[in-house]
Design goal:
Elements lengths: L1 H6 L12 H31 L16 H7 L2 H34 L5 H8 L1 H4 L2 H15 L12 H24 L4 H9 L4 H29 L3 H6 L7 H9 L5 H41 L1
Helix pairs in contact: 2-13, 3-13, 4-8, 4-10, 4-12, 8-10, 9-10, 10-13
C-alpha cells in the first residue's frame, strides 16, 4: 500500500475558476490593454480602411473601390521605389546579421583590451538621434570617404546599404548576445573533445542555439531598413528613391487613397514575411526537438 502510494503520480489540485472578486481585480488591467491596443492599431486600421474608399477623401467614406490599388500597382515610380527599398532591406539585413552575430560572439567569448569601450560603442547607433546619424553619413560619404583619392562616393544604393548596416547591426548584436547568455559552454567543449574544430563547433553547436535570435535580429534589421526615412534621405542621390522617401514626396501635397493603398501593401508584405519567418523558426525548433529525442533513444 505504501509503495503504491509512493509510486503513484502526484495528483494535481483542481484549479478553481476565478470568482467575482478576481474579475473585479482584473478588469482595470484588461481595460488598459484594450485602450493600448486601440491606440496602437487604430491609425493603421483607419488608413487601411480608407485605402478602399471610392473617392479621394481620407475622412469621409463614400463607397468600396479597388481603383487606387490599381493606380498604385501601375505607378512605375512607386514600384521602382518599392523595389529599391526591398533591395536595400535585403542586403542590409544579410550584412547586419553577419556583422552583428560576429560582434556578439566576440564580446561573449573573448577578453581583449578596449572590450568595454567597444561594447559601449555598439550602443551609440541605437541611442543617437537619426538626424545626427543622417548628417554624419552625409559628411562621411561626401568629405571623409573620398580622401585621399579625391573621388566622391556616389550616393546610390551602395551608400544607403552601408548607412543602414551601420545602425542595424547593433540591434542584431544585442539580440544575439542576450541569447548567448543562456548557452552552456560545456556543449562546445564537449564537441571539441570529440574532435570538432573551432569552426565546426561554432557552426554545429553555437549557431543552432542562437538561430532564433538570428531570425529575430534579421526581422528587426529588415523592418528598420524598410521603413527608415531620415538616414535614407541624407544618403540617397537624386536618382535613388526609396519607398518612404517616395511616400513623403507624395504626402507633401495631400494624403490620397493611393498613398494609403501603397502603405497597406507594404504592411501586408511585412506581416507575411514575419509570418513566414516565424513559421520557419517553429519548424526548425520542432525538427531539432525530434532529432534530440531520437538521439536520446539511441
Amino acid at each position: 500500500m505504501t509503495d503504491a502510494v509512493v509510486n503513484s503520480p502526484a495528483v494535481k489540485p483542481r484549479k478553481m475558476p476565478p470568482g467575482p472578486l478576481e474579475y473585479l481585480k482584473r478588469w482595470p488591467i484588461q481595460a488598459w490593454l484594450v485602450v493600448v491596443t486601440i491606440f496602437l492599431y487604430a491609425p493603421l486600421i483607419s488608413m487601411m480602411v480608407f485605402s478602399f474608399n471610392s473617392t479621394r477623401s481620407t475622412t469621409v467614406w463614400k463607397g468600396f473601390s479597388l481603383k487606387y490599388y490599381e493606380q498604385a500597382l501601375h505607378n512605375d515610380s512607386l514600384l521602382v521605389a518599392f523595389g529599391n527599398s526591398l533591395t536595400i532591406a535585403l542586403f542590409s539585413t544579410i550584412l547586419s546579421v553577419v556583422v552583428g552575430a560576429m560582434a556578439a560572439i566576440v564580446l561573449w567569448r573573448f577578453r581583449f583590451a578596449g572590450k568595454t569601450l567597444f561594447d559601449g560603442a555598439l550602443a551609440v547607433p541605437i541611442v543617437v538621434p537619426e538626424i545626427c546619424m543622417g548628417v554624419g553619413m552625409l559628411v562621411f560619404f561626401a568629405k571623409v570617404l573620398p580622401w585621399p583619392v579625391g573621388l566622391p562616393w556616389p550616393f546610390n544604393l551602395g551608400a544607403i546599404i552601408i548607412a543602414h548596416v551601420s545602425f542595424s547591426f547593433p540591434f542584431v548584436a544585442v539580440v544575439v548576445r542576450a541569447r548567448l547568455g543562456s548557452f552552456n559552454r560545456e556543449l562546445e567543449e564537449a564537441a571539441k573533445d570529440l574532435g570538432a574544430s573551432e569552426f565546426r563547433a561554432l557552426m554545429d553547436v553555437v549557431i543552432p542555439h542562437i538561430q532564433p535570435s538570428l531570425i529575430a535580429g534579421a526581422l528587426l534589421a529588415f523592418t528598420l531598413s524598410l521603413d527608415d526615412f531620415v538616414i535614407t534621405f541624407f544618403t540617397a542621390g537624386p536618382d535613388t528613391v526609396t519607398f518612404p522617401v517616395k511616400v513623403y514626396s507624395m504626402v507633401r501635397f495631400s494624403v490620397t487613397p493611393e498613398v494609403n493603398a501603397a502603405s497597406t501593401i507594404l504592411i501586408v508584405v511585412t506581416v507575411l514575411l514575419t509570418f513566414l519567418a516565424l513559421k520557419f523558426q517553429g519548424s526548425s525548433a520542432l525538427t531539432a526537438g525530434h532529432d534530440g529525442g531520437a538521439g536520446e533513444k539511441k
